Amino acid sequence: MKKISTLACLAALVFFSACKKEKGEVITAPIDAYSPFVVGKYITYQLDSLVPVNFGAALETRTFEVKYVVDAAITDANNRPSFRIIRYMKKAGDTWVSDATFMATPTTNGLEFVENNLRYIKLRLPIRDGYTWRGNSHIEAYGLNSELKYLADWDYAYDSVGVATTVGTYDLEDVIKVDQRDEIIGNPADPNSYSEINYSMEKYAAGIGLVYRKFLHTEYQPGTSSYTDASYGLTLTMIDHN
Question: In the chain, pLDDT over 90 holds for what percent of residues?
Fold first, then answer.
């Protein structure tokens, strides 16, 4: 009887331990829930592009429409399944003209996106509030002569996972927000001192993909009282999708 009782106790411990483990596991939505890629899929955005004008004396916003189209299923340099995305651009009343090509690579635990030959880790598992990762870790931003130093050490973080959000004219029920950078160096209000602003944030909607993006990088030089040519910004707001 004592032997049977001991075996019963051991079995109970294993059972309850397994149950505890199952309860402790964090199960979140898969990456493709917020970044579905299918050939033929498109999302159209209003693009507000911020650029220096008058030799950097000011920043001016120029507005376009851009359409991101999943053009083909391909493989990347590491033979991983990927998707080629073509961007088309136009001003109101004009015809679409292709102007850029990107690549998206869904991985087992994230989403990589190549833009202007720079590889970003846009999304990462698990998708839960507060989870962070180094989204720019594939970008060489530490070199002595690097022009991308402002992209170094970015900690991406999920914020407001699965919330209802309005983007443009769309009321979306399930959206995740990815905070990427919110940095101010110096005092932008003081024209006599150097200042730099780095800000980036994106929103993804379930079943659609990227629905909103805001990015800003400015460098102000007091000696010339102007913004450098490297200063730029953009805001993408979804206006149509299939």
Answer: 85
